[in-house]
Design brief:
Radius of gyration of chain A: 18 Å
Oligomer: homodimer
Structural class of chain A: mainly alpha
Distance between the termini of chain A: 18 Å
Strand order of the largest sheet of chain A: 1-2
Strand content of chain A: 5-15%
Number of helices of chain A: 6
Largest sheet of chain A: 2 strands, antiparallel
Number of strands of chain A: 4
Helix content of chain A: 40-55%
Chain lengths: ~160, ~160
DNA sequence: CCGTTACCCTAGCTGGCAACTAGGATTTGA
DNA sequence: TCAAATCCTAGTTGCCAGCTAGGGTAACGG
């Protein structure tokens, strides 16, 4: 498994929130956990990460809960996954800076050539980040989807 | 970390083998471990996986060792990573069949709609597999690289 | 205001597995 | 026949994903 359940559950929480109309008010973690069949106590940690990343807003007290901090169209999946998983790197030695550039941690060490395999891992990392960047939460909001369309089915296959 | 050290070390072993000229004969694990600074006993397990996958050939006994089973141009990184890591899936519920098609394990379960997030994970998986498929081991064979060329440097950044 | 509902925070646990190590059996070249 | 190598099966061990526990704090409703 490439991503942990943090990303898996967290993305489902975000998709759940995106699927609600704003007029419904915030959704409580309790209701989300029940609807998605996920452990509520665990979701609290994930919700905290999402909140700290500025992706959701919370309201405390009775009738409180979580709602999206921005419209779903303005939230990329890269933001979501990064908030949940931390930095996205295929292996230890590849790091992605804030500017999006990749560096091998061994670079610059005197007498140490960069991993010969950096080219591979950089490409993998790049393709993942690009894919996550190009997708917004709005695309995941389930509109009571009937059957996948032809184009969707094609996209799903490698 | 997305990939484990199995992929990291194993790819380095393959790159090492690809960097040798065929006339040198097989390379012993001992020499590879020393050159790459990796634990030899651990590499034995990885070499076994690579051999079972038909990616390397082994010769036992004195002056034995490992060599590529095919020219580096004919080995895709997808094969290598798959041999080392097992199936490549971003999260538990996404599985890639031998045909390259992706399915969500929950599909088909009566009364259970497919993950709304399948679209996301499928795309991520697809982009990873595509990247790995499009790259051959030959591209990783270090040609005693002096300094990275301009084009290489550009490719490295996202 | 008071009780209920929810978020919020820190701490801990625990089973599984990644990342090795150990030790021997087997094959082969010189 | 010896030494060098692969091969095979079994461990071991530290860490961390994936939770649970228990309280504190804010807000709403009546």
């Amino acid at each position: 498994m490439i991503f942990s359940t943090k990303a898996e559950y967290g993305v489902r929480v975000m998709a759940h929130l995106a699927g609600r109309s704003a007029s419904d008010g915030p959704a409580s973690l309790h209701s989300i956990a029940e609807a998605e069949g996920l452990p509520q106590a665990y979701l609290e940690h994930l919700a905290a990460r999402l909140r700290r990343a500025g992706l959701v807003e919370s309201r405390r007290g009775a009738r409180g809960g979580y709602s999206l901090a921005r419209p779903a169209e303005a939230i990329t999946m890269a933001e979501v996954v990064r908030a949940l998983e931390g930095r996205i790197a295929p292996i230890e030695c590849i790091t992605d800076g804030a500017d999006g550039n990749l560096t091998c941690v061994r670079e610059g060490e005197p007498g140490h050539a960069p991993c010969p395999t950096k080219l591979l891992w950089s490409r993998v990392q790049g393709s993942i980040v690009r894919t996550l960047n190009d997708m917004t939460l709005a695309e995941l909001a389930r509109p009571a989807a009937p059957a996948p369309t032809r184009t969707e089915a094609e996209t799903l296959n490698v």
